TrEMBL record:
The active site is at D12 (nucleophile). It catalyses: 2-phosphoglycolate + H2O = glycolate + phosphate. Its cofactor is Mg(2+). The keyword Metal-binding applies. It comes from the Bacteria. This is Phosphoglycolate phosphatase. Mg(2+) binds at D12, D14, D172. The keyword Nucleotidyltransferase does not apply. Belongs to the HAD-like hydrolase superfamily. CbbY/CbbZ/Gph/YieH family.
Length: 223
């Protein structure tokens, strides 16, 4: 029995398509400074990303000596600061721009399912020149649940009219892989992203890749 050809690709954003940690770290440190807490290194922030902005701020507060009682105020400060710097140092990873174009030319339908708040996505995609590349772009607050819940993934499949077997989840963290597995779809992982210091292979994705070029070459065999 031949495997079902893949038609729909669902990408995570931060750590998969883009390196946004420098801008996230800048906003986190502006928030910490407001509370007169020690500042965090970029590498520390890299290990806190992946579960949405509220959890990112919570991890930063606890790591730098803050209190959970500060969380709501700290989150609002972070969001305001990040709105001012979200596109300053954020860049696409090597091979991503070319790879996305190759996948589009091959007929794949591209989508984003990220835990980043939706309010930041339009300006960020415009900054990257990607505003016309994706059918659907879902943030962590676009629906009532975010990854590792599979809701975003199943929603995209249903909205576009494809079966789970025709869709693939692509990400860099265990939340991406767990969401894809919970949805029952193939999962492809990238080893260079943000995964709390854990090897992404430990989450048992269908395949894992060291770079975006290798990922694209594999996906092109799935059509």
């Amino acid at each position: 029995m031949q495997p079902t050809p893949k038609k729909v690709l669902i990408f995570d954003l931060d750590g998969t398509l883009i390196d946004s940690v420098p801008d996230l770290a800048a906003a986190i440190n502006q928030m910490l400074a407001k509370f007169e807490l020690p500042l965090a290194s970029v590498e520390a922030v890299r290990g806190w990303v992946g579960n949405g902005s509220l959890v990112l701020v919570e991890r930063a507060l606890l790591a730098m000596g803050g209190q959970l009682a500060m969380l709501d105020e700290a989150h609002e400060i972070f969001l305001a600061q990040y709105a001012d710097c979200a596109s300053q140092e954020t860049v696409a990873y090597a091979g991503v721009n070319e790879g996305l174009n190759r996948l589009l030319a091959a007929g794949f339908r591209l989508n984003i399912a990220t835990n980043k708040p939706e309010r930041f996505l339009p300006a960020l995609l415009t900054h990257l020149g990607w505003q016309d590349k994706f059918d659907l772009v879902l943030g962590g607050d676009s629906l009532s649940a975010k990854k590792p819940d599979p809701m975003q993934l199943t929603y995209i499949c249903q909205r576009l009219g494809y079966t789970i077997d025709e869709c693939v989840m692509i990400g860099d963290s265990k939340n991406d892989i767990m969401a894809g597995q919970a949805a029952g779809m193939s999962t492809l992982a990238l080893r260079y992203g943000y995964n709390y210091g854990e090897p992404i292979d430990a989450s048992n994705p269908t395949q894992a890749f060291d770079d975006f070029d290798g990922l694209v070459a594999f996906i092109l065999t799935l059509a």
